[in-house]
Amino acid sequence: LVQRILVLDGGMGTMIQSYRLDERDFRGERFADWRSDLKGNNDLLALTKPEVITAIHYAYLEAGADILETNTFHSTSIAMADYHMESLSAQINYQAACPARACADEWTARTPEKPRHGARGVGPAH
Questions:
Q1: What's the CA gap between 102 and 84, in Å, rounded?
Q2: Residue 114, H or E segment
Q3: Which residue of 6, 15, 26, 72 lies most exposed, with the fewest beta carbons within 10 A?
């Protein structure tokens, strides 16, 4: 920060929408029989479609981002209650941090003079 302005990645939700995921994508195998609809629970994709989240992180890094936010905009027990998933909040937060950290580390290794960082994405329910 003393040497240059750092660039934060962009909106995760809008990037997720570009993938046109359906209910099955959000459910994955683990939540195939879940009692409520899950489409729109973007944070759940950390568990069911981590490859999508990783691809989005890569896209932002390729565009010049220095800081990657985790896909955890609604990953609180309060927000997860909409999907009856309160008990999964901690797991989702942890799993969402993994691809952000891995992508940041990979790109930092490529260009050590320009380190990349991870930051927790925080939404209105935090």
A1: 29
A2: none
A3: 6
Q: DSSP readout, 9-40?
A: ---HHHHHHTT---HHHHHTTTTTT-SS--TT
Quote the pLDDT of residue 124.
60
Q: How confident is the model at residue 123 (pLDDT cuts 50, 70, 90)?
A: low
Tally Cβ neighbours within 10 Å of residue 109. 10
Three-state SS for 47-95 is HHCHHHHHHHHHHHHHCCCCEEECCCCCCCHHHHHHHCCHHHHHHHHHH
Residue type for position 86: E
**pTM metric for this prediction:** 0.92
Number of CB atoms found within 10 A of residue 106's CB: 13
Q: What confidence tens digit (pLDDT) does each residue in 33-80 have?
A: 999 999 999 999 999 999 999 999 999 999 999 999 999 999 999 999
Residue 41 corresponds to which tokens in the numbers above?
């629970």
What is the DSSP pairing of strand 67-69 with strand 117-119? parallel
